[in-house]
């Protein structure tokens, strides 16, 4: 808030984001809640884009003077621009801003961050505080981008050795933020493994991962769970603070989903996911709790937006990998209950893809083409790899172009799904 009031480039970036967010809330609450919007033709005038462009102009003109202040301002504007372009569906530009912020954060003098590089009691003030906070947030967005960009390799994933992912096994996490940061690293590693194995990278082949990777990461997931439980047992109250309860549920949801996906990843390919049904059922229950907290916070059926990923990639993965008919329909119910946008993830688009995967895999299974059990869906009926692109026409996303492959069968299949 201080920088929004005192620095023109930050003020214009914040105004652009505020206006586009209000427009999103108003339009998503209207008759076309199921249609993500494109900013290009919105009739509210050009105010959001004017503020956006003005912020760029001011940022380019700013004097180099105090390098620390310049770094803080540039990082903050990068973050606001990333939020703006994710919210408007301009994902290419959002990633451009994210890359710029990540690169800038890597070049920050380590002395600026040393006092706050751990989760201790040190509380630096002024510009250093802002740099620490925004740098950490940008790096979290960098880590999370792997969930929607299959050829993305987060900077921290390259720089962090596997042995450094977790603190000593005889300790506990000191805060939920620390637990979340360590889990983000594990989420990125597991997602990258799944993307690599399915050869979905459009940017070329990624280097092969070691054969022991699965066992190592499963061990780290187990260690994370122990550290997390120890932290909670040491007196963190979740009942008195609804926000704390929501974050605890989200972290348990993400951890349980990771464990289910990775432990099921083996020679049986898509059939192996059936073994993780109890974990998937637990995940859906946790996701329902988190979605209810979303709804309680924003109001019934009101749209929400966050630049971070939360429940959407988890629900999508459960929807396409768990073939239990009840679990799948519970996933669809949660996705369609409330319009949610998390970075490049949109709940309605994710629901449409899960719905189509279900239709394809259950075709010819049981009475009326609806499967009654997982066993009715043979391995050759199961979709192994799926990707999609939103196609914008005028003011709205008109359709989703999907590409997928079947397990044990060769060839790519493409379709267009209307929203």
From TrEMBL:
<keyword id="KW-0805">Transcription regulation</keyword>
<keyword id="KW-0238">DNA-binding</keyword>
<keyword id="KW-0479">Metal-binding</keyword>
<keyword id="KW-0862">Zinc</keyword>
<keyword id="KW-0539">Nucleus</keyword>
<keyword id="KW-0804">Transcription</keyword>
<protein>
    <submittedName>
        <fullName>Uu.00g076200.m01.CDS01</fullName>
    </submittedName>
</protein>
<dbReference type="GO" id="GO:0046872">
    <property type="term" value="F:metal ion binding"/>
</dbReference>
<dbReference type="InterPro" id="IPR052360">
    <property type="entry name" value="Transcr_Regulatory_Proteins"/>
</dbReference>
<dbReference type="GO" id="GO:0003677">
    <property type="term" value="F:DNA binding"/>
</dbReference>
